[in-house]
Amino acid sequence: MKKAVFPGSFDPITNGHVDVITRALPLFDEIIIAIGTNADKKYMFSLEERMRFINETFANEPKVKVENYMGLTIDFCKEKNADFLLRGLRNPADFEFEKAIAHANRLVSGIETVFLLTAVDTSFISSSIVRDFIRNNGDYSLLVPKAVKR
To answer: Where on this chain does substrate bind (predicted)?
Structure first.
């Protein structure tokens, strides 16, 4: 069984995340969307809200599971018997950052990272941009799935 973990804070999930996950579905038997918890980080949305957004967005996709974790992502992958990490790349800066992490993860754990380029129409979207729109009462409806807009 080919199982991938797609880690992130998903605060909130965006249409960019949805695009990467949807395009990765044919590649894997299961994708675990893993919401990482960082005690030092302030989130706009609670863990429960973020999990609900993702569960509603992928309600009709049995290959997608949603879980949360603390600690190293590679430890979570081992716990879930996942051999792959899934990551989306928006730009060259993302690639440089993710490449170093991927090399370290593979060296330490043997877990491979699969990169998908984001689609052109979602490549500019980030959770931080969405949060800025929300904080300033802007229209963020085109940037996120329906579950977040409610």
So the answer is: 9, 41, 73, 87
